[in-house]
Amino acid sequence: MTTSAVRCRVAPSPSGFLHIGTAKTALYNWLFARSNGGTFILRLEDTDAERTEEQYVQAMCEGFKWLGIEWDEGPEFGDEPEKGAFGPYRQSQRLQLYSEEAARLVAEGKAYRCYCTKEELDAQREQAALEKRPPRYSGKCRNLTPEEIAAKGDTPYAIRFRVPEGETVIDDIIQGPVRIQNKEYDDFIIVKSNGDAIFHLAVVVDDGLMKITHVIRGDDHLTNAGRHVMLFNALGYPLPKFAHHPLIHDEQGRKYSKRLHGANVLDWRKDGYLPETMINYISLLGWTSEEEGREFYTLDELKQLFTLKRLTKSPARFDRKKLDWLNGQHIRMLSPDALCDRVLPILREQGFPVDERSRDWLVEMAAICQEKIPTLNHIIPYTDFFFAAPTAYDEKGDRKFFRQDTSLQALEAALECMRQADEWTVTALKESYEAAAEQKELKIGALVNGTRLALTGKTVGPGLYELVKLLGREESVQRMEAALNYIKTSGEGTA
RNA sequence: GUCCCCAUCGUCUAGUCUGGUCUAGGACACCGCCCUUUCACGGCGGCGACAGGGGUUCAAAUCCCCUUGGGGACGCCA
Q1: What integer pLDDT is reported at residue A102 of this predicted model?
Q2: How many structural domains does chain A have?
Q3: Could you tell me if A478 and A450 lie in one domain?
Q4: Which of A106, A225, A331, A371 gives A170 a disulfide partner, CB atoms 3.0 to 4.6 angstroms apart?
């Protein structure tokens, strides 16, 4: 790109939560700005008052905050104050600007008043659908004479853009040149009869006045871009560069529906994914780095490496399995201390009395799970036994580790190891277990797995010696005795 | 229906612009083996794709056309 200042933006309409697709657009704009020393702008497209609610603004803000996407210019948003010299950044506060520009277009003959009613137009569209014709505006009000207009008196009117003859070319960075015959566009409305600007006018006026240099957005806007190019030209604004990236698809290959789980980026927070994972994963959904084969990227790396040239043209499906893998990678990159911080709220919410433990103990607990968990939420089944003794034993495990001929012997040997350990450390326990196994001619697995089942009630979990060490001698011994008692009193094992 | 975009393993992709180095490379998933106290991690190996048809060319995944498939857009929504 050029060295002249890049200015790009994301312009969500606050009509719901932060959609994963909006997050992608925001991310690509943000990364592009960052990798070029440019400016990233947030603008709220709330021209449709009926669909905008303040709570949505909050929800969206939380999504951006969680992902860590921060903007250089933008409206007051959540607890952020308005910032930037090209404001206001909410379209609802820029209505005056749109009216002025629309009036200018009308005065220059580039737009005109249309007195057709919504009902008339709807009927025409339905008729067109019936006859399998493309729905197009009839052009009824295109050439009204000043007399005819005067005769309308104060009948409400919308304003339509007078689409010129010819062809419009969108010179798209990702898609290449896209040529569309202007006759494919009918004279579209730019101002509603209630005086509010339509999206197309608003975007172009805003992008023009905010000196946007690059419009990076989903390719659902590709055909709209033609309208925008015409509007840029009509208004006399310099044309920004366009880059229309493909949409994110669901596992079935459709546009990721708002109703699907995961459409809301905060769904992923709830499911135990790290924001750095989401940034990394979404970046991969339509972009590859020069460095072949590499897929793990930190945010700082992305800010360095991101280029529009490496954007993909075809839509990508969201693959949960790959996301899991990536999340595991990012979890392992965390320091045990950081992992502890991420995991604590989850354990707390689960009702585990984590605040009774020392910080060191909690960090160690997080550390012994780090290699094991694909999502933060998996911390729960990996650590619940620390906070409550097992009330039941895994059925398969019971048969396998409690009911064999050597089960009792193994568990008693393990218990002896615990009782006699000189020091309560991972290495001491390990050595002691190994010595006992050898001496009693038992498989180490019998000792270890039996102990795991006795202490946790499960057959899977963190490394055994690590877990025993953290559980503490007293608690471990108690649980071993309970297990032995359970085996002896539940009968069937003696056979 | 009309217009626009897209098309390499199941999925994400490299390679396409600048045809030959591609008997098509990597990653996730899957399968097997190794490591191993479980689970996971890690290591090794396997399975697996240029949508189809025509051209152009000495040579095509790469260029052109058609077909098919998928997606998107056609609002006084954004």
Answers
A1: 96
A2: 4
A3: yes
A4: A225
Nearest nucleotide over every DNA/RNA strand to the A459 CA, judged by C1': B38
Q: How far is CA A166 from the centre of its chain?
A: 41
Q: What is the mean pLDDT of each run of 10 residues along chain A (495 residues)?
A: 78 91 96 95 84 82 94 90 93 94 95 88 78 77 83 87 93 92 92 92 96 96 95 96 94 88 95 97 94 90 94 94 97 96 96 94 97 96 96 92 89 93 91 91 92 95 96 95 90 49
Catalytic residue among A152, A258, A313, A488: A258
**Nucleotide with the nearest C1' to A131 CA:** B1
**What b/e string do you get for A423-441 counting C-beta neighbours within 10 Å, with b at 16 or more?**
eeebeebbebbeebbeebe
Same domain, yes or no: A105 and A227: yes
Q: What is the CATH number of the domain that holds A51?
A: 3.40.50.620
A103 and A200 co-located in one domain: yes
For residue A328, being part of any structural domain is answered with no
For residue A151 the two structure tokens come to 């005769």
For residue A391, what are its two tokens? 């009330």
Whether A369 and A328 have beta carbons less than 8 Å apart is answered as no
Question: Residue A324 falls within a domain, yes or no?
Answer: no
Instruction: Identify whether residues A117 and A237 lie together within a single domain.
Output: yes
Residue A85 shares a structural domain with residue A101: no
Rounded CA–C1' distance between A214 and B70, in angstroms: 28
- pLDDT value for A494: 45
- The question of whether A258 is a catalytic residue gets the answer yes
Output the pLDDT for position A1.
43
Cα-trace Rg, chain A: 32
Which positions of chain B lie under 7 Å from any protein Cβ? Answer: 1-8, 10-15, 25-29, 37-42, 70-78
